[in-house]
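Researcher: I'd like a structural prediction for the single chain below. Treat it as a standalone chain; there are no partners to consider.
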Amino acid sequence: QVYLVESGGGLVQPGGSLRLSCVASGFTFDYYAIGWFRQVPGKEREGISVISSVGGTTWYADSVKGRFTISRDNAEKTAYLQMNNLQPEDSAVYSCAADLEMRSWPIYSNEYDYWGQGIQVTVSS
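Model: Treating it as a single chain, here is the predicted structure.
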């Protein structure tokens, strides 16, 4: 009954932008921090950003800081990841996840309770 569903991925040229959405259902969305992770086959999953339950605190990995912006709309039970100036190195499967407690950076996948299926982002010319 718990769902996190990502959308907004796809193919984009270097320098382009995408906005990922993560729509939640089946749990108390505004009690949970929302993290975004990405993974390339053969590599460990990387935490790239997290936002606190009411949106007051955000953290970013150095690899995306200044280019990506995390946000949320609790009334719509949706979190977002705005990705600007995308580069080929950003290509990965991106997943959103929910954690009952906001934790200090860095974030780890085993801390998160609920996960979306993931969505492909490919940056290529």
